[in-house]
Amino acid sequence: MQHHNKLSTPFKIIVLFLLGYSTTALAGPPFVTDDPEPVEYQHWEVNYSAAKTWRNQESSAAMPSIDINYGLTQDLQIHVQPRYSYEKTINNKASGFDNTEMGMKYRFINIDYGGLSLMVGTYPIIELPTGNSSLRSNMEKAKTFIPVWVQFNQDKWTSYGGIGYRINPGLNNQNSWYFGTAFLYQLTPSLQLGVEIFHETPDTLISQSFTGFNLGGRYQLIKDYNLLISAGRGLINIEPTNKCSIYIALQALY
After folding, report:
1. Which of 19, 47, 71, 161 shows the greatest Cβ crowding within 10 Å of its Cβ?
2. What fold is seen in the domain 9-253?
3. R_g of the chain, CA atoms, integer Å
4. Residue 80: its pLDDT value, please?
């Protein structure tokens, strides 16, 4: 449900400064940064994906990963994401079913005014300890991510982003903060391209902070089926965090 409220000029200037111009379209996958817009009411969005990240003499991959989302109400989306993962370190290789994500996205502000729109929401996600303990340490601990996402739309532009707090229990782990923003442009009716930049503080006592970027987009193959793809790398502390990462998915809308 959209609420048609008048936005004051100072408010519009502040939002534009923070987020840039935008339009409702692709959000979330193929990017790390998410958005506050839920899946359409009583519809499904399923992303069948593969992703891989290379680090210094190490790599990790999720192949396959199934990101399942359902619009429970007009402002509430439920989410579950099982995946099969591969981990390679200098001394070890492991594979198996990974921990499972479950979450609920709730949009609590939805304003549309004269072709401009603003959405604000939260998307708490819990990572349940369902995975193979050989993949990583502390796999038996449930982890939680609590973000606030903002999206602003106009014409062919979309931008969204926000801040999140990650609760990361376990030996030598620590909680961390995530910051990210993405900007996208509808180049043609079938093609949308964008860029994101994001940063996360260290999530263990021995790890380093991470800043990275991705370039990517969505291409409509046929009605209700889209190809999602992105690629990027780290900008600081590159060798131990992200020398290169790729993501590709088939998105199906039901």
Report:
1. 161
2. Porin (2.40.160)
3. 18
4. 97
CB 201 within 8 A of CB 209: yes
Residues of the chain with pLDDT under 70: 1-27
Q: 108: how many CB neighbours lie within 10 A of its CB?
A: 12
Say what the pLDDT of residue 57 is: 86
Structure tokens at 31: 């990017």
DSSP SS3 for 52: strand
Note the pTM of the prediction, 2 decimals.
0.85
Q: In degrees rounded to 5, what are phi and psi of residue 13?
A: -65, -40
**CA quadruple 138, 129, 201, 13: dihedral, nearest 10:** 180
Tokens of 204: 């263990």
What residues have CB less than 8 Å from 223, skipping those under 6 apart? none
pLDDT the model gives residue 126: 97
Burial class (CB in 10 A: 0-12, 13-18, 19+), 42: exposed
Query: 51 by DSSP, 3-state: which?
Result: strand
Distance between CA 167 and CA 176 in Å, rounded? 7
Q: What pLDDT does 27 receive? A: 56
φ and ψ at residue 94, rounded to 5 degrees:
-150, 155
Cβ atoms 147, 162 nearer than 8 A: yes
